Amino acid sequence: MNVQELVQKHKLLECIHCGICTGSCPVARKAGLNVRKYMREVAVRHLLEVHPQDELWSCTTCATCGIRCPKEMTPYEFLIDIRSLAVEGGQIATTLRDALEDTFKNGNPWGRIRSKRSEWAQGLNLKHVSDGAEILYFVGCTPAYDPRVQKVAQSLAQCFEVSAVDFGILGDEENCCGNEVYGMGEKGLFEFLVEENLKLFNKYNVNTIVTACPHSYHSFKNKYNQTAFRILHHSQMLSDLISGGKLTLTKELNKTVIYHDPCFLGKQNGIYDEPRKTLEGIPGVKLVEFARSKERSVCCEGGGGRMWIDISGQRLAESRVKEAAEAGADVLAVACPFCLLTFEDAVKTAGLEGKIEVADIAELVAQAQ
């Protein structure tokens, strides 16, 4: 992609250089990322160059810059295209390169073999979606492989079974959704994953998918360009099951819970109410709010490939868990596997172990059954 193509695609000449994109960027101060400068270099000076890795790869693709842009531009999409140029030129961190290669070879960025993908479900006796299931539970790479997040997948499966939801999984056939691959700029690999996943969904006549990962939800809903199936986030499903009386919760948790809005669920897709309704449906839960919540929620720094590259400086997740503790919360509730991992790590580095717990909403619902 040349300069002129970038200018036209992202409407860079419409930029009024107000700097709101940089000012609203959660990692700008930490990483020195100046989105306006990048756009100005291409649009005005016709310079097309790859910037230092700590800048270029610091973007979490949270979309805050796009939400606040007065000209309704999407600077983060522009940065993804700049990343594509870096990937094509081999100017990419080793950890990111390895994640992309692992995704191509084994269908996941975590370096795990495909035959281990359904190990999380051992002993649960879950059926394959081909056995006439009405709903496909798309587990996702992180819940399938990460030992901590596997507990979320197990809890959600438990909730579905108790509610008599007719669901199935893809088992070892499941692939990466490709959302983080896209965010890292490897759009060729993303298109390959889209094609492979759609073939799989068509093969099993999938018409409804539920996932606990906002990144998969966002990708399926907004980047697959399809109308063959509908996609639900697990917060939507759990909220409906509880309010519809299909999932009865009887155990009181008696905990103060604060909920963090994931960027790819909230900012990118406007889902704010369902996770809160789910938590409010749990007996003994007192729900409190962050000072910055919903569309103003602070990014955990897990998106856009950031799970596979560390950027120096204080992590936003640390300030977030400290704020949760100061609000008097016993539990920091999340609805995203990346948020779960970044916050649990931040609890340790911030010295808050034993003072606050991090849990997915599905885990809390399962505890209340």
What do these coordinates show?
With 369 residues, the chain is an alpha/beta fold. Helix content is 44%, strand content 8%. It is built from 18 helices and eight strands.
The strand order across the widest sheet is 2-1-3-4
Question: What is the element string, with H for helices and E for strands?
Answer: HHHHHHHHEHHEHHEHEHEHEHEHEH
The N- and C-terminal alpha carbons lie at a distance of 53 Å
Count the beta strands: 8
**Alpha carbon gyration radius:** 20 Å
What would CATH call the class of the largest domain? Alpha Beta
Give a brief rundown of this model.
The protein has 369 residues and is α/β, with parallel strands linked by helices.
List keywords for this structure.
369 residues; alpha/beta; Fumarate Reductase Iron-sulfur Protein, Chain B, domain 2; Rossmann fold; 3 domains
Task: Show the helix and strand layout.
Layout: H1 3-9, H2 20-24, H3 28-31, H4 35-43, H5 53-56, H6 64-68, H7 75-88, H8 94-106, E1 135-138, H9 141-145, H10 147-162, E2 167-168, H11 179-183, H12 187-203, E3 208-211, H13 214-222, E4 230-233, H14 234-243, E5 255-259, H15 273-280, E6 285-288, H16 316-326, E7 331-334, H17 337-349, E8 357-360, H18 361-367
Parallel strand pairs: 1-2, 1-3, 3-4, 5-6, 5-7, 7-8
Helix pairs in contact: 4-7, 10-18, 14-15, 16-17
